[in-house]
Amino acid sequence: MTRSASHPSLCAHHAGQKLKLMKREKPPEKFGAELLGPLEYLDSSSAVNYALSKLLLLAADRRIPPREAASLGYLCQLLLQSVNGVAKEQKIALDFKDREERLTKIYESIPALQELEDDEEEAEVAAEPAAQAK
Fold this sequence. Notes:
Largest sheet: none
Structural class: mainly alpha
Distance between the termini: 92 Å
Mean pLDDT: 79
Number of strands: 0
Low-confidence stretches: none
Oligomer: single chain
Helix content: over 70%
């Protein structure tokens, strides 16, 4: 068969099939903002964990293809492995207080971490009267 004038390598029949398929496919959704949420950087374990939990929800809802989810999960694993190195560099480059403020900002922007902190505070308050009674 001869090549189609509308496609560099396909015949007219297959070029027409490919064109129909391309018209049916919807453009891929962009999930970057949803994965990061309120975070600016993925330079702490908590931030990467937050992104991974969002990725899991997207994959479970079938809003992201399994292959793409696996690739992003692997990239998150690489990020987690580099967190300690990034922290050391930041400790050297930034004042310790600046790093602490950035981590506090990350923790405050993740609702699940705030709930854990509230639960810990409640447990401490509940344990104080028992400790004083002894």
